């Protein structure tokens, strides 16, 4: 124990921690619990046993006597304030504190860092006149984001903040805003902070609705609009955010939001009343029972997804219900269910800091899951070994110990080659394999033919690198896997995921801290959409729709029969439209025209429908084809829950009213259930959550009030269960895990591909999927078009310069984008994003799908290139 102003408190951490425990108010400008104390600002001066020291850098020890208020300290602090004021004109928290300390002017001769303003960046502005050199931004950038944009240069009165690249716009900044959130002096500010000054009315804690990381946000509201978003403390993001979560919230009050239902009359969509629109939807879909399909939205809440599949099954009488997991991580779910018995991430994000080796396979985490990317980067900086499997040299591939730059589409031989080394070099955990798996002897024999030396030609990866990577992963104490779409969006997607499971099983890396097989789920709630039963064969909680006992359980709750045969997946629904057996489709928040493959065919299929309903925020390309458009509410305008990629169910809390006549999606679905004659009376999403717990054992213990704080990771079998951070600790749901032999079967897309470039499609940091929300945010200033990356050598050969417009052509269609010349893609390989409707990326992609789970092969399309003189005409 020690005393702070005569109060006894525990002696742990720093003296500043002890003072805070004692409730003493001490100014501290360079303090952020997430970074080590720097002692730069000196504002937290206190007396310890009579000596004046900085509280943040002094260790608390038993017996110390700490004084936080004395005339001497007040004089020191005012002096310090006056010194600061001689060099800077701090605003923000520092400005307010200095005033409180009585430092309103300065007795020292002023030496301002005048003229140091930089407003070149679209998101972050700098005014160095305000900077007190506390270095919070330097630390936040390095120790939270893992970039090195800022440095403190010069000495004494010449000391100043600096960055590389001249204008800030040309620095390495990724606009995560961590520096702005950490800056106490107002020297760094962002577009939102400038707009938000001076006050906010209220703040709402909620969950980000972009990617599946599930960051916690503090959404600050002024009047009827969101003015600023800060990262909130949480085990997921520790207060950090990326450029989408922090800045892409203009969606809430964008003038192009849908604010009233629309019905097609005489060929055009015209405003209609809710009554008219809902009656029409109920009538048209009701009269086509057995020929209706429904797509759910992984952008929507668990409660909404649950209601949608319930309505489809008992209201429309169909199991033809699917969601974007189909085009995304359905192969992860299928592959992992086959190998381990559960199709979800085995471990938690917190394991990233516990692992001593990470295998990152087919994931561009710094762009697609930036908070996870940053956590991996920090782990690597503190010694964790990293192996990256990716045909492109991604940001994380650059810092990897081994980058296995395989040819696109060769995951199967490469993963088998890794396993062959583990087995051949005696790195197998025999005790684990014997106790908890089946199929080892067969697999050990099978993989011999994939030895790195024999698969080198096929994969393009030197055998010695494969051996190094295998040793690194297999000899780690806690080897963790994280994987992305580079694994799943292939002809052999599910099978590649089975091979990832094989690798983990061989080395006993399942069921404990710091290991596991972890798909980095894409959409904010794609985990939840699948959990809730938005799939043709599985009901809520992954219950088999073919099992009569399962159906009886649901029927008892729902009061209506559940169709007993599995429905159609999304690709099969398109086939059914062509065959005339599916004539109406209901789409909740999915823009299939822009995001499903072979979009010329998608448009033809949607046009062939007799009746199409789209429930959306914006008039997307898909919504434009609809007969009825229903205006939903964004995540900022409704309550509910999302489930992130580590199975964590977190709250979504309403910050604003929906615009115009738009309604929360769950309310619309309740109306549709009622119109289909199904009993549905829910006062709020919390009531829906209770019902979810009643029908599905993994969620039995989930209650809205239990999710305050950090949420809960399912399974949560009872109301006193704390949730499950790590799966398969003792046993697998299927008893023993399965080691599966998977042979390499080249994609049919390669049969006529001689002389073509291999196109990979994927993501950029600033935009999100169809871009409907990010293109309508300030992020458009950071990236204004879809890019096509081409290798320097190929570009030179074809006389292509950066910024040229290129047209690509495949067997299915044409697309356009801006050339980005870079050696991050290998020769003969291209990479293109799909965030802008006018580029039509998905006119190129084929209808080849994963052999097991029907996921499109977005990652392998043979194309040819031509240079075009100007940009394509926007639609
Ligand atoms: N900024 C941003 N973030 C997003 C999204 C977004 O649109 N924008 N979308 C969200 C969604 S829905 C999802 S699903 C996730 C997806 O996140 P990721 O899984 O990271 O998605 P991609 O960028 O499509 O592809 C990942 C990587 O796979 C690599 N790859 C391609 N072919 C192969 C191959 O044959 N083998 C291997 N090993 N790798 C290959 C690509 O080069 C790419 O680097 O991101 C989510 N987060
Ligand atoms: N070429 C290529 N294509 C791809 C991929 C690829 O890697 N390459 N990746 C695929 C993957 S992984 C995915 S997940 C899909 C994603 O494809 P989509 O699911 O079509 O993509 P999103 O942009 O997330 O679109 C969802 C729509 O939901 C709307 N929305 C958002 N929130 C709400 C809400 O609360 N209520 C309602 N009613 N609507 C809402 C948005 O306005 C948006 O139009 O794209 C796939 N397409
Ligand atoms: S990492 Fe994902 S969840 Fe977190 S702020 Fe960015 S988009 Fe949102
Ligand atoms: Mo996705």
Description:
It is built from 28 helices and 38 strands. A hairpin with a 6-residue loop joins β8 and β9. A 7-stranded mixed sheet has the order 15-14-28-27-26-16-17, with helices on both faces. It is α/β, with parallel strands linked by helices and 875 residues long. The site of one ligand MGD has 33 residues, from α11, α19 and β33.
Summarize the structure.
By secondary structure, the protein is α/β, with parallel strands linked by helices.
What share of the residues lie within helices?
25-40%
The overall pLDDT average reads: 94
Summed up, the helix count is: 28
Spatial gap, N to C terminus:
70 Å
Q: Which distinct ligands sit in these coordinates?
A: ligand MGD, iron/sulfur cluster, molybdenum atom
**Total strand count, please?**
38
Please write out the topology.
Blueprint lengths: L1 E3 L2 E3 L5 H7 L23 E4 L2 E4 L10 E3 L3 H17 L4 H9 L16 E2 L5 E4 L8 H10 L4 E4 L6 E4 L14 H5 L5 E3 H6 L5 E6 L8 E7 L2 E7 L11 H5 L14 E4 L2 E4 L2 H13 L5 E4 L6 H14 L5 E2 L7 H11 L16 E5 L3 H4 L1 H12 L3 E5 L5 H4 L3 E3 L6 H14 L5 H7 E2 L1 H7 L5 H8 L3 H12 L4 E5 L1 H4 L4 H14 L10 E3 L6 H6 L6 E2 L3 E2 L3 H11 L11 H10 L4 E5 L3 H4 L3 H10 L2 E6 L11 E4 L8 E4 L4 E5 L12 H11 L9 H11 L16 E2 L23 E2 L18 E6 L24 E4 L1 H6 L7 E5 L4 E8 L7 E5 L27 E8 L7
Parallel strand pairs: 1-5, 16-17, 16-26, 18-19, 18-22, 19-20, 21-32, 22-23, 26-27, 27-28, 33-37, 34-36
Antiparallel strand pairs: 1-2, 3-4, 3-5, 6-7, 7-10, 8-9, 11-12, 12-13, 14-15, 14-28, 24-25, 29-30, 30-31, 33-38, 34-37, 35-36, 35-38
Bound molecules: ligand MGD (2 copies), iron/sulfur cluster (SF4) and molybdenum atom (MO).
The site of iron/sulfur cluster has 14 residues, from helix 7 and helix 12.
């Amino acid at each position: 124990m020690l005393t702070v102003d005569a109060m006894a408190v525990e002696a742990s951490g720093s003296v500043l921690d002890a003072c805070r425990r004692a409730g003493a108010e001490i100014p501290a400008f360079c303090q952020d619990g997430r970074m080590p104390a720097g002692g730069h600002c000196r504002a937290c001066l206190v007396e310890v046993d009579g000596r004046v020291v900085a509280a943040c850098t002094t260790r608390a020890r038993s017996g110390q006597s700490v004084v936080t208020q004395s005339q001497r300290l007040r004089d020191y602090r005012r002096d310090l304030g006056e010194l600061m004021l001689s060099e800077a004109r701090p605003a923000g928290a520092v400005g307010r504190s200095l005033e409180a300390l009585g430092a309103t002017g300065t007795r020292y001769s002023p030496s301002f860092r005048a003229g140091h303003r930089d407003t070149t960046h679209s998101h972050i502005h700098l005014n160095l006149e305000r900077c007190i050199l506390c270095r919070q931004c330097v630390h936040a950038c390095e120790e939270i984001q893992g970039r090195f944009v800022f440095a403190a240069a010069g000495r004494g009165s010449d000391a100043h903040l600096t960055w590389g690249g001249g204008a800030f716009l040309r620095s390495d900044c990724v606009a995560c805003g961590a520096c702005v959130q950490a800056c106490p002096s107002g020297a760094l500010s962002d577009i939102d902070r400038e707009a938000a000054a001076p006050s906010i009315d209220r703040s709402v804690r909620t969950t980000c609705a972009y990617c599946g990381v599930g960051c916690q946000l503090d959404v600050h509201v002024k009047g009827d609009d969101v003015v600023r978003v800060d990262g909130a403390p949480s085990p997921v993001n520790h207060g950090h955010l990326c450029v989408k979560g922090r800045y892409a919230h203009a969606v809430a009050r964008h003038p192009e939001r849908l604010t009233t239902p629309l019905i097609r009359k005489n060929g055009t969509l015209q405003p209609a009343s809710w009554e008219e629109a809902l009656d029409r939807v109920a009538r048209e879909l009701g009269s086509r029972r057995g020929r209706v399909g429904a797509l759910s939205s992984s952008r929507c809440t668990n409660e909404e997804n649950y209601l949608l599949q319930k309505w489809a099954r008992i209201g429309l009488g169909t199991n033809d219900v699917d969601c974007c997991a189909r085009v995304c991580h359905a192969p992860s779910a299928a592959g992992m269910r086959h190998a381990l018995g559960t199709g979800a991430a085995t471990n938690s994000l917190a394991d990233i800091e516990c692992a001593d080796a990470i295998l990152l396979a087919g994931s561009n985490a710094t762009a697609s899951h930036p908070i996870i990317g940053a956590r991996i980067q920090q782990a690597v900086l503190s010694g964790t070994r990293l192996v990256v499997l990716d045909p492109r040299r991604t940001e994380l591939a650059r810092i990897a110990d081994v980058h296995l730059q395989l040819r696109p589409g060769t995951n199967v031989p490469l993963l088998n080659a890794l396993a062959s080394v583990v087995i051949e070099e005696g790195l197998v955990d025999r005790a684990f394999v014997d106790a908890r798996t089946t199929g080892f002897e067969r697999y050990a024999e099978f993989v011999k033919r994939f030895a790195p030396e024999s698969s080198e030609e096929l994969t393009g990866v030197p055998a010695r690198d494969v051996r190094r990577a295998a040793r690194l992963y297999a000899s780690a104490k806690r080897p963790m896997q994280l994987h992305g779409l580079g694994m799943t969006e292939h002809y052999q997607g599910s099978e590649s995921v089975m091979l990832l499971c094989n690798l983990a099983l061989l080395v006993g890396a399942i069921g404990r801290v710091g290991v596991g097989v972890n798909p980095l789920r894409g959409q904010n709630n794609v985990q939840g959409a699948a959990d809730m039963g938005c799939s043709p064969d599985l009901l809520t909680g992954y219950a088999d729709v073919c099992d009569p006992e399962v159906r009886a359980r649901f029927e008892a709750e729902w009061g209506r029969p559940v169709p007993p045969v599995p429905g159609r997946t999304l690709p099969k629904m398109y086939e059914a439209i062509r065959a005339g057996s599916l004539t109406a489709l209901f789409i909740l928040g999915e823009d299939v025209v822009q995001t499903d493959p072979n979009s010329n065919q998608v448009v033809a299929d949607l046009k062939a429908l007799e009746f199409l309903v789209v429930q959306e925020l914006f008039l997307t390309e898909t919504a434009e084809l609809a007969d009825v458009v229903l205006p939903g509410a964004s995540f900022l305008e409704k309550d509910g829950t999302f489930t992130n990629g580590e199975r964590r169910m977190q709250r979504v809390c309403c910050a604003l009213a929906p615009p115009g006549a738009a309604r929360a999606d769950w309310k619309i679905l309740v109306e549709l259930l009622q119109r289909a004659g199904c009993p549905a009376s829910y006062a709020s999403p919390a009531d829906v959550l209770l019902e979810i717990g009643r029908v599905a054992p993994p969620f039995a213990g989930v209650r809205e009030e239990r999710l305050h704080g950090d949420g809960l990771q399912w399974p949560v079998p009872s109301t006193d269960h704390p949730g499950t951070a790590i799966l398969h600790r003792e046993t697998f749901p299927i008893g023993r895990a399965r080691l599966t032999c998977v042979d390499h079967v080249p994609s049919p897309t390669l049969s006529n591909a001689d002389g073509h470039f291999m196109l990979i499609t994927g993501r950029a940091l600033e935009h999100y999927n169809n871009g409907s929300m990010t293109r309508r945010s300030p992020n458009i200033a950071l990236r204004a078009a879809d890019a096509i990356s081409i290798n320097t050598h190929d570009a030179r050969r074809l006389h292509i310069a950066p910024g040229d417009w290129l047209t690509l052509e495949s067997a299915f269609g044409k697309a356009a984008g801006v050339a980005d010349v870079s050696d991050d893609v290998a020769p003969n390989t291209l990479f293109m994003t799909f965030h802008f409707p006018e580029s039509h990326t998905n006119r190129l992609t084929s209808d080849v799908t994963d052999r097991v789970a029907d996921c499109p092969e977005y990652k392998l399309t043979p194309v040819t290139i031509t240079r075009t003189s100007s940009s394509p005409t926007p639609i």
